[in-house]
Amino acid sequence: MPFLSVTKNTKRNGIQTFAKAQRLMPEIRDIELEYLDARDWYVNTVGVIAQMEEHLAQAKAAKDVETAAEINNKLHAERCKLIDVRDRVKKAGERSYGEAFYLAASIMLPRDVFRQIDMEAEKLIGRPRHELARHD
Predict the structure, then answer these.
(1) Predicted TM-score (pTM) of this structure
(2) Are 35 and 96 spatial neighbours (Cβ–Cβ below 8 Å)?
(3) How far is CA 105 from CA 36, 95, 109, 119, 120, in A?
(4) For residue range 44-73, what is the model confidence (pLDDT) as tens digits?
(5) Is 96 exposed, middle or buried, given 0-12, 13-18 or 19+ CB atoms closer than 10 A?
(6) Band of pLDDT at residue 9, cut at 50, 70 and 90
(7) How far is 66 from 43, CA to CA, in rounded Å?
(8) Segment (H or E) for 49
(9) In terms of Cα–Cα distance, which of 107, 102, 104, 52 is closest to 79?
(10) Residue 99 burial by Cβ neighbours in a 10 Å radius (0-12, 13-18, 19+)
(11) CA torsion angle for 111, 117, 119, 123 (degrees, to 10)?
């Protein structure tokens, strides 16, 4: 069964798991869990494609043209979906990392430096970090 490729740092530090994410600070826990959910969806889609490719090879070996054509069409659809899924995973990962970076900066930087960076970020995107009011 295929598995997703990971970076050297991930290999060294260990891949993030749901159990690890549950122990994160509340400010970033939910965002990281969203990323992990999207990553699992991607890995499952890669697994489905691998199974379909194997089924296609078996159908071709058995010279079952009708089944091979059907599987080939489904395989094409899954591969197209994989591109979208990969983009979603990447965006979810970047959002999670960005929130963790923001939290670390807010803890580690002196207040005046952090505020200057925050104001510059607001100028860059033309809005505050959270535009909408919370309704908890």
Answers:
(1) 0.74
(2) yes
(3) 23, 15, 5, 14, 14
(4) 888 899 999 999 999 999 999 999 999 999
(5) buried
(6) low
(7) 29
(8) helix 26-61
(9) 52
(10) middle
(11) 180
